[in-house]
Amino acid sequence: MLDVAIIGGGPAGLTAGLYTTRGGAKEVVMFERGMPGGQITGSSEIENYPGVKEVLSGFDFMQPWQEQCFRFGLKSMQKDVMRISRLKNYFVIHTDKETFEAKSVIVATGGSPKRSGVKGEDQFYGRGISTCATCDGFFYKGEEVAVLGGGDTAIEEALFLSELCKKVTVLHRRDEFRAAPVTLQKAKAKANIEFLTPVLLDEILGDAKGVNGILYKYKDSQEQQKLEVNGLFIFVGYSVNNQILKQEDGSFLCEMTDAGEVKVDLNMNTNVPGLFAAGDIRIQAAKQVVCAAGDGARAALSALAYLEHHM
Ligand code: FAD
Ligand code: NAP
After folding, report:
1. Ligand 2 contacts CB of residue 288 (under 6 A)
2. How much distance in Å is there from the Cα of 110 to the middle of ligand 1?
3. Which of 70, 222, 300, 301 has the highest CB neighbour number within 10 Å of its CB?
């Protein structure tokens, strides 16, 4: 039986792995469905992690985290976890093919990009519609692209795209932006970024080759306008990845908010003994790498205390 199962290999999961193994837990496995690193690996840059002066891509930034954890004995398994259930005083981790037993579990499954629900989105997803400028921006080098959204992700990624593309048109449904003022200021200073607000995206157009345009209108007008672009980057927020906590009867293993976040106390304890949550999945998460890492460390310390006193 594992001492600690960590689900998710983003900043929260990796930090939990570092602190549990370095703190003496023997059998610690981190289950990650893809490559470790988490959401930030899809970002073109990170410049707000304390102590790291260079501006690095999210991918480069996360590389040393894995190496550091594995040095202290963290094991990683590339598995998609389907569900976690509780039996007596231990947990069962259900993956697509196997099950694993663990004395304690740290859930660090983070979030995923939301869909906008605009007509044509499902049809052209991956064929001109992207949620990752770092991954797909290069395909539109020298071309005109559009960005939907007004949060930090949309504006940061518009800035990234403006270095590659001829023109970037940002469409946002309000005149006010959620993005940090400093980021917005940078984007507004770019000659090849145009802002269209407040506008609603009506439809994504395309053919067999993929996207070839979008239809939008200003909020106070009914007149539809067309923008000819082959690439649309959608950044309209994230949903938390809480599916693994859903039980067969549809209830959740632990207490959740209406928005689907895990309720934890300041020590990352859920209401179920031995079950902890860390990072973007938890209530009131600041959704920052530094905070996710802090949560991971706190959850690990709580898991170590739980193993010592209850198992
Ligand atoms: P995540 O990073 O989401 O990691 C969760 C991991 O769990 C993922 O690797 C996922 O594959 C895995 N997983 C999920 N479900 C399962 C499952 N069922 N089985 C197995 N594995 C699973 N923050 C900053 O501080 N600075 C920035 O500059 C910054 N830029 C950002 C740019 C972008 C484009 C985005 C999207 C976010 C940015 N953020 C930034 C926010 C930051 O990335 C997140 O707050 C942080 O990554 C959260 O870490 P986490 O470990 O909680 O979750
Ligand atoms: P976000 O802050 O929730 O912003 C989503 C944006 O999309 C909002 O502007 C929203 O408009 C718009 N939107 C939502 N649904 C829409 C729809 N159906 N159609 C059109 N527009 C829609 O999401 P995010 O930008 O991905 O950021 C997520 C979190 O990560 C935030 O907490 C953010 O601060 C953090 N983050 C931080 C950094 C950084 O610190 N450098 C970088 C990236 C992300 P409204 O504003 O009108 O609701």
Report:
1. yes
2. 5
3. 300
CA–CA dist 146, 169 (Å, integer): 5
Q: Express each pLDDT in 139-166 by its tens digit.
A: 899 999 999 999 999 999 999 999 999 9
Residue 217 φ/ψ, nearest 5 degrees: -145, 150
CATH architecture of the region 115-234: 3-Layer(bba) Sandwich (3.50)
Interval 282-308: pLDDT, tens: 999 988 899 999 999 999 999 999 999
- 2-112+238-310: CATH topology is FAD/NAD(P)-binding domain (3.50.50)
The active-site residue, picked from 60, 80, 122, 135, is 135
Give, using CA atoms, the residue closest to atom 36 of ligand 2. Answer: 152
Query: 287's torsion region: left (phi>0), alpha (psi -120 to 50) or beta?
Result: left
Look at residue 42 and tell me whether its pLDDT is greater than 90.
Answer: no
Strands (E), the chain: 2-7, 28-32, 75-78, 81-87, 90-95, 99-107, 111-113, 129-130, 144-148, 167-171, 193-196, 199-207, 210-218, 225-227, 231-234, 238-240, 275-277
Q: Which of 136, 152, 280, 295 is catalytic?
A: 136
Q: Could you confirm whether 136 is annotated as catalytic?
A: yes
Distance in angstroms (rounded) separating the CA atoms of residues 145 and 157: 12
CB atoms within 10 A of CB 215: 17
CB 279 within 8 A of CB 8: yes
Q: How far is the CA of 149 from the centre of ligand 2 (A)?
A: 7
